[in-house]
Each structure stands twice: as C-alpha cells, then as structure tokens.
Amino acid sequence: MTDAAAGTASGTAAFELAQVNISRLKFPLDSPELKDFVDALDPVNADAEAADGYVWRLQSEEGNATDIQVFGDDWLIVNMSVWRNTDALTAYMYRGRHREMLSRRRVGVPPRP
C-alpha cells in the first residue's frame, strides 16, 4: 500500500506501523560476548532516527531501551519503533549498520525452539 492509498482526505496518513522485538539474552549485556552488539546500539538507533519514515522508538530517559525491564525478566530486552509504513521500515532494516547487525543477530540470543 502506498502512502497515498493510506492517506485521509486531509493528506495525513491513516496509519503508522509499530514493530516490537522481544529477545532473551544468552549473556548479560555487559559481557564480552555482547560488547559488539551493545557498542552498536547508539549508532544503529541514530541511523533509525535519521531514516526516512521513522516516527518514534521506545527508550528510557537515558535514551535506550535495554534498561527497560520486560515482564520482570532481566534476561529479556525489548525494541519497539513506529514507522510511516512497511516500505520505510523495510528500507531501514536491510541497509547499512542495521543490516550488518542482523547478520550477527544469533550472537547472544539463543535459537528459537
């Protein structure tokens, strides 16, 4: 669906797309095994915020989401963002630093059953 097809009579979008990821860690965030992942968070988040179609992301007062506790479980981390549409989210996900991080996403996160 294009933005025009999703628009209202006033020209504003009739919807936005929210995405949520919840992951269980294999190692603590401050472990050597997750150092590359943690070091990449700020640049990857900055890329998202500068991306065309980005609207909002979940973050604490410190500017990240890794310190937001999920379901009372210290081993879970959450990522949530809102985008103008699926095209904008897809373009961000599969380019640049985020794509590089996706290629290494199994480090620190156990495989799904």
Describe this structure as you would to a colleague.
This protein is of the alpha+beta class. It has a single domain (16-103), classed as Alpha-Beta Plaits, CATH 3.30.70. The protein is built from 4 helices and 3 strands, in the order H-E-H-E-E-H-H. It has helices at 3-6, 35-50, 86-93, 96-103; strands at residues 17-24, 54-57, 76-83. Strands 1-3-2 form a 3-stranded antiparallel beta sheet. Pfam families: DUF3291. This is DUF3291 domain-containing protein.
In short:
The protein is built from four helices and three strands, in the order αβαββαα.
The fraction of residues assigned to DSSP E strands is 15-25%
CATH architecture: 2-Layer Sandwich
Oligomer state equals single chain
**Helix/strand/pairing category:** alpha+beta
InterPro entries: Dimeric_a/b-barrel, DUF3291
Protein name: DUF3291 domain-containing protein
Organism: Streptomyces aurantiogriseus
List keywords for this structure.
113 residues, alpha+beta, Alpha-Beta Plaits, three-stranded antiparallel β-sheet, disordered N terminus, DUF3291
